[in-house]
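Side project, low priority. Logging it here so it doesn't get lost.
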Amino acid sequence: MFGIVPKVEPTPLATGLFFRHSTRNEDHPPGVRMKARVHIMLKTGVLDPQGEAVRHALGSLGFDCVTGVRQGKVIELELAETDPGKAQAEISKMCEALLANTVIERYDVELI
């Protein structure tokens, strides 16, 4: 759906959120700007009326195999930061301040 993303293991943070490190980022040249992809989804247990509407519409179109849909959003960021650790800290601040409603949403960050 979002293209080919390498299989990576998430790294838990103290907040229970995750940063995924792309294998492409391991060889990140020093001094080169970074990119990040933020996946934002509703937390488990939070009702998803948009997802339910999509599930219903798919059923109406004959796709009866779909039993549940959770809808979210993806935000791609281009960063001036070149250090992965500092980039993670800044992105976390962005998500907490603006990008995600952390009361009802969780976010995953993938450095790409």
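Brief comment: The first helix runs from residue 49 to 60.
Revisit when time allows.
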